[in-house]
């Protein structure tokens, strides 16, 4: 028997027992004739003790143990004189009688403890060592737990988990496809699924009624902390449902997960906010509702007073930062710099300090009387002691910049605590988005998203105004999931393809299989997909999804541990009939 117990379970109750433990040497220290070794496994750390006086051979052997050696130790559990209240096993230690080295280890490239001295790149290269660290391991275990709970809940409400293929045809999620060349049919390619969208719709045609899958999706797009080229979705689809049926079902899942994973009860229904309201009040379709600070449109109020910055702007909006009227010049300068960053793109910042004594001081007060400034605070609901931060410009960009400024002030004022969660549904997204460069409409969600029935006539006359029967679940400013009621009527689908600029032939070539299936009795259906990695990161209280993925890729899409993407052999290229084109200068 390799072991009788794990390194995380022995306590004073086990005092006197003979045990065998196995694990990795985290640390060892020699103190006055005694050698102490911290032995680590997945379950915890247990202290081993070797005594020079009673067994010098054994103690000598222990002194040669290096970090990360794999060992087996036999001995007796005894009470520790120097207890460690931070460890569940901190009241005991093992008085070792026999020590076996199961494997040696080279000196690891970084310390394998809660905090490490290893930088990101190094940790990723040796990810298998990084995964020995409790923080990272616990993230992966949390992920496991979330997956189990998802399966339990979905099964309990009759969803069937169906696996869909990975070698498929392009799916229209708006990103670039990863492609795989076919050897058997030279010159042709599979695409990896950006999501199982079309397949889950086919499963509805098949009558599965309720489908889900925890599934890998692949999108070749620029990466960020919350994006990976391959990521995992909880993908779901249901038949004979309207929007509210889908929202109610998955609100149920969200509430269940919060209860099981975080012990948090949501007794009230989640807020359902139209897209237009989110954009107007928060400048963003994924508002963080942990705090208020809504954006106010003050365009009408401030234009026409000779202040050219405002007079030449399409839109002027303000956020009111509570209790910040005493901001120093340095602080307002910092905020100006913040909004001027290229990724935010505002030209400048105008402020109004509404002093606790009722005084009004603005960076634009040359152009406005005190009475006029008074109207600004009335319109924005500012209170004495508040600071109004105002941006002006093109409506869309200014709202986006105000959204960033609002979040920045939320951070500065500690209004975004990690242990508070405010979920909401965003509904009534626009169906289409105009692309100025390509001068055509794109589906905001994907081309199978149903328009709101009452807006269908607008598809021919004013497509930009059509609202979609689509929804997102947003929690604390993060889009956790999104989906829609689908088009199941062939005529509406044709109209949609037409608005998107597909010819009949193109639609047939790309989605013929789906259009064909819809000829054989497609039920009304709709669904949603959740970003599983994001959900795990949120439950784990972190922003980056990377630490919740066992073997993630870096920002350039590389797996630095596997050292891939990498070249393949000429033989493989030949088999695939692939030849590289040398770039002409
Ligand atoms: N396939 C969609 C996505 O990946 C989700 C859905 O519409 O169900 O975003």
Main pleated-sheet profile: 8 strands, mixed
What is the CA-CA span between the terminal residues? 67 Å
Helix content: 25-40%
Q: How many helix segments?
A: 17
Given helix and strand content, the structural type is alpha+beta
Molecules bound to protein: aspartic acid
CATH class assignment of the largest domain: Alpha Beta
Low-pLDDT runs of 5+ residues are none
Shape: globular
Number of domains: 3
Question: From the structure provided, what is the oligomeric state, counting identical versus distinct chains?
Answer: single chain
What fraction of residues sit in β-strands? 15-25%
CATH architecture classification name of the largest domain: 2-Layer Sandwich
Strand order in the sheet with the most strands: 6-9-10-22-21-20-17-11
The CATH homologous superfamily name of the largest domain equals Bira Bifunctional Protein, Domain 2
Number of strands: 22
Structural Rg: 30 Å
Q: What number is the mean pLDDT?
A: 95
CATH topology of the largest domain: BirA Bifunctional Protein, domain 2
In short:
The protein is of the alpha+beta class. 29% of the residues lie in helices and 24% in strands.
Give a written overview of the molecule:
The chain is of the alpha+beta class and 585 residues long. The chain folds into 3 domains: 12-103, Nucleic acid-binding proteins (OB fold (Dihydrolipoamide Acetyltransferase, E2P)), CATH 2.40.50.140; 136-266 and 475-558, Bira Bifunctional Protein, Domain 2 (BirA Bifunctional Protein, domain 2, 2-Layer Sandwich), CATH 3.30.930; 291-412, GAD-like domain (Gyrase A, domain 2, 2-Layer Sandwich). It is built from 17 helices and 22 strands. The longest helix has 23 residues, at 134-156. It is globular. Bound molecules: aspartic acid. Aspartic acid binds at residues 173, 195, 197, 482-484, 527-529.
């Amino acid at each position: 028997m390799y072991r009788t117990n794990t390194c995380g379970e022995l306590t004073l109750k086990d005092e006197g027992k003979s045990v065998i433990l196995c694990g990795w040497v985290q640390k060892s220290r020699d103190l006055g004739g005694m050698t102490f070794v911290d032995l680590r496994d997945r379950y915890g750390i247990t202290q081993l003790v070797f005594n020079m006086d009673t067994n010098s051979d054994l103690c000598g052997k222990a002194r040669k143990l290096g970090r990360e050696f794999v060992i087996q130790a036999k001995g007796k559990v005894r009470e520790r004189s120097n207890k460690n209240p931070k460890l569940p096993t901190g009241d005991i230690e093992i008085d070792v009688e026999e020590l076996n080295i199961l494997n040696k280890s080279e000196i690891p490239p970084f310390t394998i403890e809660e905090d490490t001295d290893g930088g990101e790149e190094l940790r990723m290269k040796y990810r298998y060592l990084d995964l020995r660290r409790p923080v990272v391991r616990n993230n992966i275990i949390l992920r496991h737990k979330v997956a189990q709970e998802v399966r339990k809940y979905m099964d309990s409400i009759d969803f069937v988990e169906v696996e869909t293929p990975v070698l498929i045809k392009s799916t229209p999620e708006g990103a670039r496809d990863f492609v795989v060349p076919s050897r058997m049919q030279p010159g042709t390619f599979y695409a990896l699924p950006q999501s199982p969208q079309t397949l889950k719709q086919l499963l509805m045609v098949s009558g599965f009624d309720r489908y889900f899958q925890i599934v890998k999706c692949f999108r070749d797009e620029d990466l960020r902390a919350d994006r990976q080229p391959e990521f995992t979705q909880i993908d779901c689809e249901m038949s004979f449902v309207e929007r509210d049926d889908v929202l109610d079902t998955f609100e149920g899942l969200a509430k269940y997960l919060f209860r099981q994973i975080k012990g948090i009860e949501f007794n009230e229904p989640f807020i359902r906010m139209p897209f237009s309201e989110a954009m107007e009040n928060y400048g963003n379709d994924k508002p963080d509702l942990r705090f208020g600070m809504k954006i106010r449109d003050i365009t009408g109020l401030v234009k026409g007073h000779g202040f050219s910055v405002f007079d030449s702007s399409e839109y002027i909006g303000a956020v009111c930062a509570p209790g910040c009227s005493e901001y120093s010049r340095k602080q307002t300068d910092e905020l100006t710099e913040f909004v001027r960053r290229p990724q935010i793109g505002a030209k400048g910042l105008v402020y109004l300090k509404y002093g606790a004594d009722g005084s009004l001081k603005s960076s634009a007060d040359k152009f406005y009387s005190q009475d006029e400034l008074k109207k600004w605070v009335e319109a924005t609901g500012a209170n004495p002691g508040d600071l109004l931060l105002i941006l002006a410009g093109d409506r869309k960009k200014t709202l986006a910049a105000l959204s960033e400024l609002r979040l920045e002030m939320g951070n500065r004022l500690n209004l975004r605590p990690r242990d508070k969660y405010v979920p909401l549904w965003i509904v009534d997204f626009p169906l289409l988005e105009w692309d100025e460069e390509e001068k055509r409409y794109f589906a905001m969600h994907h081309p199978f998203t149903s328009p709101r029935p009452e807006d269908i006539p607008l598809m021919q006359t004013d497509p930009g105004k059509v609202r979609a029967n689509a929804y997102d679940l947003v929690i604390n400013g993060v889009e956790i999931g999104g989906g829609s009621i689908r088009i199941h009527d062939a005529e509406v689908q044709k109209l949609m393809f037409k608005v998107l600029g597909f010819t009949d032939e193109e639609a047939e070539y790309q989605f013929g299989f789906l259009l064909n299936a819809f000829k054989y009795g497609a039920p009304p259906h709709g669904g949603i997909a959740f970003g599983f990695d994001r959900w795990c990161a949120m439950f784990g209280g972190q922003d980056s999804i990377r630490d919740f993925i066992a073997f993630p890729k870096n920002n350039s899409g590389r797996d630095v541990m596997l050292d891939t993407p990498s070249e393949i052999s000429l033989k493989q290229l030949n088999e695939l009939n692939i030849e590289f084109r040398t770039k002409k200068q």
